[in-house]
Amino acid sequence: MRNAPPFSRALAAGLALLVCAGLHARDKDKERLFNTFYADGDKVTWVLVLNQDRTYRVIGPDGKALDGKLVASNDEMALTQADGRRHFSFKFDGDSVWLTPSKKDEPNLAGLLGRVPPTGRNERFLYVDEETWVAKGRAKLAAAGPPVQPDAPAPGPAAPNPAVPQPAVPAPEKVDGHYRRVQGQQTWELKLAANGTFEYLAANGQKANGTYLYVAGELTMDSGFHRRHLAIREADSGIQFWRREVDILKLGDPLGEMPPQDRDPDVWTRLGAAPPREAAPQEPLRPQPISPTLPEPPGP
């Protein structure tokens, strides 16, 4: 542009101003979102640092920090990581902000991001902006700890227990059916429909339902409130479940408390399963009649 005519230079400058104005207008509706927020309370617990360059930092109660990418619209925002995201609707209260999990939220992520409040589907949580926090006489966070990667997933299945017989057969091609688990006086039931939906009845009478996906021996069930990740192998009378590495338990949630709760296999009986096929009995061999051999007639 050094040798461009004055009109061209003026036009380029005008376009640059329009672009900057457009970017500013795009962020105008959420300008208050780019701030440092503290979980409302008497002391520092959770801290959210939301930056205009679309990055964020989460700092937990133990001082650990996690950095990631921020996506925001005029009333929703997502804190993203490679293995998932937290998705919230937000509403300002002055310069503070209320967060509510949206339908797109994934509160069951492992690690720091999965524990960021609020985690309940209908829960609201207030984060106070830094200026208001200090005005209330509360101390600011002195320094953030070094950013860390999400916590490592839960350890995989333990080494096979010699006391538990391990199936030597592959995973079933499909798993739809009605299954039951009985332990003492307690009974659990699980129905996996062919259309990809499930119904679960816990021993305490609590229920859960939703959708499932089964691929190559791996079952994922999603109730809308919780998600379970299980591995499946066939058993003599039904199937065996194992918790996969990414499986997360959740106390108080029916699906989150569904067996298995540890890393050992859990056997569920398939109701109405066909009995093992037996070989058809063979008839005993009967002696065959032997035709008498007649002497050959004498020659001429």
Radius of gyration: 32 Å
**Counted beta strands:** 16
SSE order in H/E notation?
A: HEEEEEEEEHEEEEEEEE
Strand pairing plus helix content: what structural class?
A: mainly beta
Strand content: 25-35%
Major β-sheet annotation: 8 strands, antiparallel, barrel
Strand order of the largest sheet: 1-2-3-4-5-6-7-8
Concise structural overview:
This protein is mainly β. The chain is built from two helices and 16 strands.
Tell me about this structure.
- With 300 residues, the chain is mostly beta strands.
- The protein contains two helices and 16 strands.
- The protein has helices at residues 6-28, 130-135, and strands spanning 36-39, 47-50, 55-59, 65-72, 76-81, 84-93, 96-101, 125-129, 177-183, 186-192, 197-201, 207-215, 218-222, 227-234, 238-243, 266-270.
- The strands form two sheets. The protein has an eight-stranded antiparallel β-barrel.
- It is elongated, with a radius of gyration of 32 Å.
- The protein starts with 5 loop residues before the first helix and ends in a 30-residue tail after the last strand.
- Mean pLDDT is 76; it is low at 15-27, 143-168 and 274-280.
Topology:
Blueprint: H1 6-28, E1 36-39, E2 47-50, E3 55-59, E4 65-72, E5 76-81, E6 84-93, E7 96-101, E8 125-129, H2 130-135, E9 177-183, E10 186-192, E11 197-201, E12 207-215, E13 218-222, E14 227-234, E15 238-243, E16 266-270
Antiparallel strand pairs: 1-2, 1-8, 2-3, 3-4, 4-5, 5-6, 6-7, 7-8, 9-10, 9-16, 10-11, 11-12, 12-13, 13-14, 14-15, 15-16
